[in-house]
Amino acid sequence: MSVPEVGTPSTIRYLVVVSEEDPVATAVARQWGSRPATGDHLDGAAIRTLSDQALLVHRPGFHIHDDLFDQRLPAQLRRGGVTLVFPSVHRSESNIPTLTVHPIGNPGDAAEVGGRPRTLVPTDPRLMASALRALSARSKEAGMTATFEATHHGPAVELPAMFVEIGFGEDAVPPASAVRILADTIPTLELDGEDRIAMAIGGGHYAPHFTDLVLKRRWAFGHILSRHALASLDRETARRAYELTVGAEGWLAARVDDAGHSALTGVGVRLRDSDAPPRPRAGTPPTDASGT
């Protein structure tokens, strides 16, 4: 496959991080082939161009345990606030084939799957919304659905970060159709500057309510704190989740009971689903600004 050539350093929006032990990350990276080196390195590995807005680097070991590797990135990338994008395998007890997007960090005391207890990572809400919409638009090609997941697992990093995953049950390798979708969409994510940004509160781990809002309305979410996380949520963690939902205007709740959590007192303002306008349907012509 071919991907757009690299732009200038000022246009770089995100860095795709490929774990050499992750079956999805390595399969997706093979689709991109050998990319030109930029001349910069991370722990001896070449940082390469992927598209006019994205760079690529390979890492040994698993993503989820690669804490604070971003501190060793070249200074110009750190200063620019580049977002880290992790293509990855998704595992679950249900083994339902799915494409997922999620923010990272541990809102509770547990950190069995990487990261640190009660430690959250900065988010890039509009980039996550873009990834979810892109995956959803092509999910039928792989016979899957696309969904958000709530905030969970590591690594603990300082730059904004997100995971883009393929869940494929107990098969040894990810489906080729799903790999192609990630390989096609990750290098060319397009942000919608009209999206309103909010923190998401409550709902299930797979966040169907917030998934639906992003697909149908101009919402973009940063941290997504599931109903399970609310059981142990404290004020400081709620405040950090809000601060790290970069650009947040407030928060939305999946249901009324979720909105009443005491840890949310004084943390942003509650917004309503309808506060963001509907997204235009595919094929809908743009509105004439003149009103004629």
What does this structure look like?
The protein is α/β, with parallel strands linked by helices and 292 residues long. 22% of the residues lie in helices and 23% in strands. The strands form 3 sheets. An 8-stranded mixed sheet has the order 2-3-4-1-5-10-6-9. Strands 12-11-13 form a 3-stranded parallel sheet. Strands 7-8 form a two-stranded antiparallel sheet. A hairpin with a 4-residue loop joins strand 3 and strand 4. Helix 1 crosses helix 4. The N terminus and C terminus are likely disordered.
Tags for this entry?
alpha/beta, 23% strand, 292 residues, disordered N terminus, 13 strands, 8-stranded mixed beta sheet, single chain
> How are the strands ordered across the major sheet?
2-3-4-1-5-10-6-9
Instruction: Give the % helix.
Output: 10-25%
What shape does the CA trace take? globular
Report the average pLDDT across residues: 91
Report the total helices: 8
Number of β-strand runs: 13
Uncertain spans, ≥5 residues at pLDDT below 50?
A: 1-8, 283-292
Give the class from helix and strand content and strand pairing.
alpha/beta
**Termini Cα gap:** 43 Å
Q: Which series of helices and strands comes N to C? A: EHEEEHEEEEHEEHEHEHHEH
Gyration radius over CA: 18 Å
Major beta sheet summary? 8 strands, mixed
In short:
The chain is an alpha/beta fold and 292 residues long. 22% of the residues lie in helices and 23% in strands. It has helices at 23-32, 75-79, 125-138, 176-185, 208-216, 227-230, 235-243, 256-259; strands at 14-19, 37-42, 45-49, 54-59, 83-90, 98-102, 105-106, 119-120, 145-148, 161-167, 196-201, 219-225, 251-253.
